[in-house]
Design goal:
- This protein is mainly β.
- The protein is built from two helices and ten strands, in the order βββαβββββββα.
- It has a seven-stranded mixed sheet. The protein has a three-stranded antiparallel sheet with strand order 1-2-5, with no helix packed on it.
- Strand 7 (69-75) and strand 8 (81-86) form a beta hairpin.
- The longest helix is centred in the C-terminal third of the chain and has 8 residues, at 136-143.
- The protein is globular and about 40 Å long.
- The two termini are 20 Å apart.
Length: 145
Amino acid sequence: MTVTGGCRCGASRYTLALEMLPPVYCCHCRDCQTWSGSAFTMQGVVGEDEVAGEGPIVTYAFTNPSGSISTQYICGTCHTRLWNVNSARPQLRIIRAGTLDDSDRLEPRAHIWVKRKQPWVALPDGVPAFAEAPPPAEFFALLTR
């Protein structure tokens, strides 16, 4: 299986060096709601050497309140966010799961920042949910099971 994805207009594409779809989680924080224009974002986690992009991919970097720098990789044509890297975790790439070609096959392993979720969003039974950011070790265990 080749894991691929891309932007809305098709100008920018990426390939993940994985045998299967990446583990994903949903984030309900206000930043993710604002960035996506939706109730939450669904994000996949991959290693720094596991994503290769092509096409007009541009970057946009900003400093978070924590002081870490978040660099967004965006289609230079339609401005779809494809993935990002945070200076606090430079070994990881966070894929915008909706940009994966097989996004309809994804099953979130966790929901985070649910204290900010929209009241009409119903979370599935059996999927861990965290009021804010989960403890890193527990979150990592969920994403690597």
